[in-house]
Amino acid sequence: MNILAIETSCDDTAVAIVKASKKKFEILSNVVSSQIEVHKAWGGVYPTLAKREHENNLAPVLEKALKKAKNPNIDLIAVTNGPGLEPCLWVGVNFAKALAYYWKLPIVPVNHIEAHILANLVDSNIKFPAIALVVSGGHTQLILVKGIGKYRILGETRDDAAGECLDKVAKILGLGYPGGPIISSEAKKGKAGINLPRPMINQRNYDFSFSGLKTAALYHSKKNNLPAGRQGKTKQYISDMCLEVQQAVIDVLLKKTVIAAREYDIKTIILGGGVSANTELRKQFKKKFDNVLVPAKNLSTDNAVMIAIAGYYNKPKNWTKIEADANLRIW
Ligand code: KG4
Ligand code: ZN
Q: Which domains does the chain have, with CATH numbers?
C-alpha cells in the first residue's frame, strides 16, 4: 500500500510517500521544506507566518515528493491533525481533504506524537511494554506504550518543552534559532563548572518543568556578562553555559525515564522528537539502557514519513469529519 502523508503542524512543510506493508516501510520520497530562515528574525515560530509559508509551500513540496517517488499509485492519504499550531494544522488538513476528494482516496488523521513514536518502525521492531520519551520544541511527554495504539501519558511538561527551553536559552545567549542544534555544537567546546538547577528531578512523578532552568540561565548570564573587549572569555562562557543547560535537560529526562522503566518493567526505550536528534542525549541514553530505539536524525525532527507510518496503523475517517485539533491527546 502506498501512503501519501502530509505534515504541517509547526514550521516544517513535509510530504512523504511510503510503501507500507506488515513487514516493512519503504520510503519512496521524503521532502521537508524548512521555514527556519523565515522565523529566525523572531527567535521562534511565528504562527501566522508559518501558516502563510505552508500555504505557499505545500503544492511544490507535493510535486517534488511525487516526482521523487516516480508518481506511484496512491492508496491512502495521511495527515497530521494535531497537536500543533492550529492555523498550520488546518492548512495541511484542508489540503489533504482536497486531495482525498479529488483522487477519491481514503484519508486518515494522524496524531503527531504517535507519529514521533512510530518513526522508529522504519528500521526496527518495538518490544512491548515500552516507554516513549517524545521531546521536541512543542512537547515533552513520557508515555507508556503497551502496544501500537495503546498509550498512556505518564507525565509531561508543566510549562516549557525541552526544545523550547534550549531555543530560549540560545536566544538569551545570542546564538540564533533553532537553539537545539547550536547548543549541541557549542556544548562540545564547553567546560564543566557552571551549576544550574535540574527542575523537578527529585519529585516522585513523571512531570517535567523547564521554564525555571531557562530563567536560571538568564540570571546567570546577566550576572556574568563580561564587558566588551573580553570576547575570548565570553565565548568560553557561552560554551560552558551550553554544556550545562544541555546536561541539565538530559539529567532530568534520563532520571525520570530510568524510574519509569523500572516501575513498568519496560522492554524498549523509544526516543522521538527534534531534541532526540541531540548526539549527547542519544549517547547517554544508550549508555544507560541497552534497548534504546531512536530514529535517524532526519526522522527525529518533523517529517512526513512518520505520519505515513502512523497512518498505516490508524483507521481512515470520513473526510468531512476530520478537523485540526491543536491540543489533540495521544490517549
Ligand atoms: O520535533 P521537532 O522538529 O518539531 C516539533 O514538533 O516541535 O522539534 C524541534 C525542536 C527545536 O526545539 C529544536 O531546537 C530541537 O528540536 N532540536 C534539537 C536538535 N535538533 C533539533 N535539540 C537538541 N539537539 C539537537 N541536535
Ligand atoms: Zn514534532
A: 2-120+299-321 (3.30.420.40), 126-295 (3.30.420.40)
